[in-house]
Design brief:
Radius of gyration: 29 Å
Helix content: 40-55%
Number of strands: 7
Mean pLDDT: 82
Number of helices: 3
Shape: elongated
Largest sheet: 4 strands, antiparallel
Number of domains: 1
Structural class: alpha+beta
Order of helices and strands: HHEEEEEEHE
Distance between the termini: 74 Å
Length: 200
């Protein structure tokens, strides 16, 4: 009798073990699906950040070129605290960086954050989340957006005459601009005059 009862107890635990194993497998696959989605999302955000920064850096380079061309003219120092961006190559720079990160730009626009000018870029990954137990993920692409801004770094006294020498204090780096004896190569790297960063 005892041995028969033990055999019966063992038999009744088998369905429970199978049921628990199924639950654990489902949970593992679900966790994997969420991990896939998180990975795709992180990749999308990295691509958006890179694209926005590339656009702002391109515009920053154009600002410095414009400054070089304007030095000596009326109000040339306005280029050091611009009210608008030319950004002719900014969109192309965003496209290129998105492509390097296996993504495509879906939106591109001027942006202003805390009075700083920049660009907002939206992207969509060229790859999908992948197959999982969640229906539809095999065709789902991740999206993200980011904003990068250009911040002037230089303080200076506005000269009485546009031809006067101007000393720029760019976060501790001193830069002298003499409009009477100036060459574009005299300007420091664009990063000295302007910082580019993602908006919070």
């Amino acid at each position: 009798m005892i041995s028969a009862r033990l055999r019966g107890d063992r038999g009744s635990t088998l369905p429970i073990a199978i049921w628990l194993t199924g639950i654990l497998l489902f949970a593992a696959f679900a966790f994997f699906a969420f991990a896939q989605a998180a990975s795709a999302r992180n990749g999308a955000q990295s691509a958006a950040d890179a694209a926005a920064l590339a656009a702002a850096q391109s515009a920053r380079d154009e600002l410095v070129e414009g400054l070089g061309d304007a030095v000596g003219g009326a109000d040339w120092w306005d280029w050091l605290d611009p009210e608008n961006l030319e950004g002719g190559e900014a969109a192309a720079a965003a496209d290129a960086l998105a492509a390097e990160n296996d993504a495509s730009v879906t939106g591109f626009a001027d942006a202003t954050v805390a009075d700083y000018l920049g660009y907002e870029v939206g992207i969509e990954t060229n790859y999908t989340v992948g197959d999982s137990i969640i229906p539809g993920t095999e065709n789902m692409q991740a999206t993200a957006d980011a904003v990068a801004v250009i911040k002037p770094r230089c303080d200076f006294d506005i000269p009485e005459d546009p031809k006067d020498v101007v000393e720029l204090d760019c976060d501790g780096d001193l830069v002298n601009i003499d409009p009477e004896d100036f060459d574009l190569d005299d300007l420091p790297d664009a990063s000295v005059l302007f910082s580019v960063q993602l908006a919070e």
